[in-house]
Amino acid sequence: MPQNGTITRPTLKTPRAAAIAGIIFSALQIVVVWLFRTLLPADPLEPGAWLLTDITTVAFALQLIPFVGIAFLWFIGVLRDHLGATEDRFFATVFFGSALLYLAMYFLSAATIGSLVVVAALDPKQLIDSTTLHFGRALAYTILNVYAAKMAAVFMISTSTVALYTRFVPRWIALFGYSMSVILLVGSYFIPWGDMVFPAWVLLLSIQILIANFR
């Protein structure tokens, strides 16, 4: 077997693969956010009545999250491969590091809610309005809406900067990414449905890449 061979098919090393992965990530993420926002109260200190009525649907939303992570990893991997030698090392580090940190904290937040669901399966009435429930909900809320949101904003800034230099997407998408990242940096903890900003921007970016690829 040649030492300089590659195990990645050329057809998978195209912007189209990154666009498809980005669309899958965005669609799944939007569904997950919508489910959590409609089932779980916005207040992290709520008593937990959803444990008696919506726990099955919450568990279903949690099962989607690993697939969200897989699609996001595929998206950043193929996108970096597409940029190739044009990718600056500094922005590549920030781009890749912020993406991994966002995904790690997103999984940690989901794991915290998942742990509450597992414990509630034994006796949900004991968990309702308990200190354990309040701590878990507050922890998941803080990780997702403060730390993960900030890493998503850094990812948007670094990606938009690379886009401006390499011009792999139109300039207006990069500028739009800057403006949306400011919303996440400043108001992610206070703006309702702010966690829709990141997947919506990735969806816009992916659709533009897919259109440009077909052209």
Give the overall silhouette: elongated
Task: Please report which band the strand proportion falls in: under 5%, 5-15%, 15-25%, 25-35%, 35-45% or over 45%.
Answer: under 5%
Termini, distance in Å? Answer: 36 Å
Characterize the biggest β-sheet.
none
Order of helices and strands: HHHHHHHH
Unreliable stretches (pLDDT < 50, length at least 5) are 1-13
Task: Outline the structure in words.
- This protein has 215 residues and is mostly helical.
- The chain has one domain (12-214).
- Helices cover 77% and strands 0% of the residues.
- It is built from eight helices and no strands.
- The chain has helices spanning 15-39, 50-53, 55-83, 89-120, 124-127, 131-166, 171-187, 197-214.
- Helix 4 runs antiparallel to helix 6 and helix 7 runs antiparallel to helix 8 (197-214).
- The radius of gyration is 19 Å and the shape is elongated.
- 35% of the residues are buried.
- Mean pLDDT is 83; it is low at 1-13.
Per-chain topology:
Blueprint: H1 15-39, H2 50-53, H3 55-83, H4 89-120, H5 124-127, H6 131-166, H7 171-187, H8 197-214
Helix pairs in contact: 1-3, 1-8, 3-4, 4-6, 6-7, 7-8
Structure characteristics:
215 residues; mainly alpha; 8 helices
Question: What's the quick description here?
Answer:
It contains eight helices and no strands. The protein is an all-alpha fold and 215 residues long.
